[in-house]
Structure formats: structure tokens, C-alpha cells
Design a protein that fits this description.
Number of helices: 11
Shape: globular
Low-confidence stretches: 22-58
Strand content: 25-35%
Mean pLDDT: 82
Distance between the termini: 147 Å
Length: 462
């Protein structure tokens, strides 16, 4: 019995010693481990919370909502034109009009429904020359379309279809607010592949294309756009319309990296003008621009005296335009884009740099003066008013208001053209076109004019 208790006592003593040794050794090692903080500092120094935020935002973008909201409002536009083909040899041998035949030429593109009652915006080049227009909705329903109006300079056209139901449409948004690097979707019908959606980012704003004399304020994007996409929608990640896809930069005719869209602010203003006035109301500052100026901004070369708003604007030769309202102006295309999106009579705040002093001028925009110029003769022409016709006692005529030789004593400024090749003229636009056409076809041009003394003079140009 004594042996048994002795063994138990020895076992208990051994357990106590073992537990005490474990406690002493392992507790001390844990304390030492917690005092080593250098590895933790190395890890936290390499962590960038900004990059993590960017990645989380990028991963959170969902294009499905934007695509769903826009794909049903983009339509397929079919343009049918009647063309005439002439065969002079058939006419020579068989006569009777046998050398002439008519045929249908079909073109296709895209359009964007912008109102539930069926207004559709597209490109002018999509419907140019059409004798019949047909629109196919995303549900394959086909409808005849009516052409409401066009603006060839900005390559925008407005169509209208009639239905008994409200149509899905894409709302306009302010294209001035879109940022470089922002995600966008191009929606259209490339190569007759209906309801096609591609994604990209805004690559540049206010882009002017080399050789393009019309639009100078494109939105540039790398979303894939191909033939057939013209007139389609460029939308932001919320499915709002930021532009009308119009052109691609390519030597092959297919997409090679960049595409261009008319900004929504310009497209909306043109559409509103076509609905309200039947034609575009072009707003101007009434200045000429110094094209030699290569720094940031637009330099005023002169103020147009015949533009009333320009005389009151307070702008002067040498001023450098830096902003229109809150939009920064770095080059002429930025300025033109802002003016194209506005109407005559609107007021804008123009920030200028005048000899190092920053000034803000409130300017009333004026209506663009229509200019008709014969480039061959270097004559700028204008229609005569009723009072001018009555004063000269003539029924028709066109006035030369500027020539390429205004400094010469024998210039023809303020002469009135009454006939060209014995044909009476009364439209400045048609006269300018006629003069240039005759010269280009190498015809002799006989011009009858009334001089400053009211005498009739005749000039022959060969």
C-alpha cells in the first residue's frame, strides 16, 4: 500500500514539473514572437488603398443595364435611292432612250429613337439622296420613315415614324460632362448585324479630323465601329446618349482602333432647331480667329463689324479665349463645338486673357451670316432686299459685297449681277454655284452687271 501511494506521489510530482517547464519555456517564446514587428511594416508599406479602390470600381461596372436600355432604341435604317445609268454607245446605236436605265441603290445604317412618339436621329450621309426610307425596330417590325430635316455640315438628320405605341428611346445627356477614360458603348448595326454592342473608353474630346471641313468637335473612342454603325448610339455606362457614331479613321474602310461621334449636345441642338425652325440656327461670336496661334486657347484676330452682338461683346483683337462658360477652350475645335451646341440670342460667359489679365465677358451670340462665295471669281455675293431692287428698278439681281481685289481702284465691289450667260439671276447661292460650275466645265462666262452709277456693263471671262 505504501508503494502504491509512493508511485502516485511521484507521478503527480512529475506532472507538476512537466507542466511548469512547458509553461516557462513556451510562454517566453510567444512573448518574443510578438515583439518582432518589422515583417508587418514591410507588408503594410507595399499596400496601396487607392489602387485597391480603382480596381473595385472597375470590377463593379456592369454594362448589361446600359446595353439593355439602349439596344431596343437603336434601329436599322434602309435607304433606297433611284439612280440613273447612261450608256452613250447604246444610245448612239439604238437611240430612243435605250442607253439610259434606272435602278435601285440600297444603303444601310443605324438610327437612335430619341422620343416615345418616334423621332429618330441619324447621320445625314446615311439617308442622303434617299427616295424611300425604311426603319426596322429591334423587334424586326418595319416602318416607313419621313425625313424631317438635315444638317449636312454636322452630318445629322432627323426622321419620324408613326406607331400606336410609345417606343423605347434613349435620353440625351450633357456631353460636356463626359470624361476622357470614361467607359462608353457603341450600339448599332455594322455589316447589317442588328443590335450589336461594343465597349470602349473615351479617347479624346473636341477632336478635329484632318481633311474634315465640317464637324470639328468629335468625341473619339476606341469602341469598335464599322460600316453600318453610322447614325447609331454612343452611350455612357448608365445608358444615356452622349454621341451619334459618325466616322472611323481607317485606310481599309473597317475599324482599326478609333471611331468618332458627334457630341450629344450638338446633336440635340440640331434636332431641336429642325423641329422648331425647319433648319439649323447657327450661333457665332462674330470674330475671326488667328490660325497661326499655336498655344492653348483661341486668339481673336478681329471682330466682325456687321455682327451686332460682336460689337457689343467687349472682345478685342489679340484676346485669347480660355473658357466658354465653365468649359475649357484649348483649341478652335473646342470653341466651335460650344457654339454649335447653342442658339443665336443665348448669352455665354467668355473668359479671356488680355495681355496677362484674366477677364470674363458676357456675350450675346449672334446669328450666323450666310455667305455665298464664288471661289473662282473671289466674289462674295448677297441677295438683294426689296428696297434695293425697287431702288435699282430691277426685278432680280445679286450684289457683290466683297472681292479678292477690294484694294484695287477698279474692283467690282457693290456691283449688281443681273445676268450670267443671258440668264437672269436672283439668288446669291445659285449664282455662286453657277459661276464656279461654268468655269470648271471650261465654258465662256458672260456676266451682265449694274455699276455704281447705275449703268449696265458686260464682262466676258474665258
Amino acid at each position: 500500500m505504501k508503494k502504491f501511494f509512493g508511485l502516485v506521489g511521484m507521478a503527480a510530482l512529475g506532472g507538476v514539473l512537466t507542466l511548469g517547464g512547458y509553461k516557462t519555456l513556451f510562454d517566453n517564446e510567444t512573448v518574443v514572437e510578438r515583439t518582432i514587428s518589422q515583417p508587418m511594416k514591410t507588408v503594410t508599406a507595399n499596400y496601396n488603398p487607392v489602387l485597391n479602390k480603382v480596381n473595385s470600381v472597375a470590377n463593379s461596372i456592369d454594362f448589361t443595364v446600359a446595353a439593355e436600355n439602349s439596344v431596343h432604341a437603336v434601329v436599322h435604317v434602309k435607304n433606297t435611292a433611284i439612280r440613273t445609268q447612261s450608256n452613250p454607245w447604246a444610245e448612239l446605236f439604238y437611240g430612243g432612250g435605250s442607253g439610259t436605265r434606272k435602278y435601285e441603290q440600297v444603303g444601310t445604317g443605324s438610327g437612335v429613337i430619341i422620343s416615345p412618339d418616334g423621332y429618330i436621329v441619324t447621320n445625314n450621309h446615311v439617308i442622303d439622296g434617299a427616295s424611300e426610307l425604311e426603319v426596322t425596330l429591334n423587334n424586326q417590325h418595319k416602318l416607313k420613315a419621313e425625313l424631317i430635316g438635315t444638317d449636312t455640315e454636322n452630318d445629322i438628320a432627323l426622321l419620324k415614324i408613326d406607331t400606336d405605341i410609345d417606343l423605347p428611346y434613349i435620353p440625351f445627356t450633357d456631353s460636356d460632362n463626359i470624361k476622357i477614360g470614361e467607359w462608353v458603348l457603341a450600339v448599332g448595326n455594322p455589316y447589317n448585324l442588328t443590335s450589336t454592342v461594343t465597349a470602349g473608353i473615351v479617347s479624346a474630346k473636341g477632336r478635329d479630323l484632318e481633311g474634315n471641313t465640317a464637324i470639328d468637335s468629335f468625341i473619339q473612342t476606341d469602341a469598335a465601329v464599322n460600316p453600318g454603325n453610322s447614325g447609331g448610339a454612343l452611350v455612357n455606362s448608365r445608358g444615356e446618349l452622349v454621341g451619334i457614331n459618325t466616322a472611323i479613321s481607317s485606310k481599309t474602310g473597317s475599324f482599326v482602333g478609333y471611331s468618332f461621334a458627334v457630341p450629344s449636345n450638338i446633336a440635340k441642338k440640331i434636332v431641336d432647331d429642325l423641329i422648331e425652325f425647319g433648319k439649323v440656327q447657327q450661333a457665332i461670336l462674330g470674330i475671326s480667329v488667328d490660325t497661326r496661334y499655336q498655344e492653348e486657347g483661341v486668339k481673336v484676330a478681329g471682330v466682325t463689324e456687321e455682327v451686332e452682338g460682336a460689337k457689343k461683346s467687349g472682345l478685342k483683337t489679340g484676346d485669347i479665349i480660355k473658357k466658354v462658360n465653365s468649359v475649357k477652350i484649348t483649341k478652335f475645335s473646342d470653341l466651335k463645338g460650344q457654339l454649335t451646341a447653342k442658339r443665336p440670342g443665348e448669352f455665354v460667359d467668355v473668359t479671356i486673357d488680355r495681355d496677362g489679365e484674366i477677364l470674363v465677358k458676357k456675350v450675346e451670340l449672334s446669328k450666323s451670316i450666310e455667305r455665298y462665295i464664288s471661289s473662282v471669281f473671289q466674289w462674295q455675293l448677297k441677295d438683294l432686299s426689296r428696297d434695293e431692287l425697287k431702288k435699282k428698278d430691277i426685278s432680280k439681281g445679286v450684289k457683290i459685297i466683297r472681292t479678292g481685289k477690294d484694294d484695287d481702284d477698279e474692283n467690282l465691289k457693290n456691283y449688281i449681277i443681273t445676268k450670267v450667260n443671258n440668264k437672269e439671276v436672283g439668288s446669291a447661292k445659285e449664282t455662286a454655284q453657277l459661276l464656279d460650275k461654268l468655269v470648271s466645265n471650261r465654258y465662256r462666262v458672260a456676266v451682265e452687271m449694274i455699276n455704281l452709277e447705275g449703268e449696265v456693263e458686260r464682262y466676258i471671262y474665258r
